[in-house]
Amino acid sequence: MKKPSNAFVMASWLALGAGMTGFLIGLWNSNMQLNEKGYYFTILMYGLFAAVSVQKCVRDRLEGIPVTDIYYGISWVSMLLTIVLLTIGLFNATLLPSEKGFYAFAFLLSVFGAITVQKNTRDAQASKSAEPGKTEF
C-alpha cells in the first residue's frame, strides 16, 4: 500500500475545510431564524459523519473486515437521508436560488472532503503498517 501524496492529502483537507467554512459562514451571515440555522448545521454534521461511516464500511468490506449488514445499511440510509433532508429544506426555504445552490455545493464539497480525508488517513495508516520493521499496536 502506497502512502497518498502530500498534494492529494492537502487537496482533501482543503476541500473539507473550504466546504465546511463556506457553509458555516453562509449560515452565520444568513437572515434565517436560529432554528433554521440549527437545522442546516445539524444536516452538515450528520452528513459528514454519515459520509465517513459509509467510506469506512465500504473499505472494511473490500479488505475483508467484518461489517454487519445493519450498520452498513444504516450508514447508507443516513447518507441518503442527509441529502434528502437538505434538498427538502432548501426547496422550501425562502432563499434566492443562488443561495440554495451555494448551500448545496458547499455541502457536497464538505462530504467529498470528509470521504477523501478518511481515505487518505486510512491509506497512510496502512502504508505505515506495511513498512518492514513496523509493528502496529
UniProtKB/TrEMBL annotation:
Residues annotated as coiled-coil are none
Tell me if Membrane is a UniProt keyword of this record: yes
Report the record's Gene Ontology biological process terms: DNA damage response
InterPro entries from the UniProt entry: YiaA-like, YiaAB
List, for all copies, the residue spans of the domain called YiaAB two helix.
8-60, 71-123
TM segment ranges = 7-27, 39-58, 70-95, 101-118
Q: Where is the signal peptide?
A: none
Q: What is this protein called?
A: Putative membrane protein YiaA
Record the organism.
Chitinophaga dinghuensis
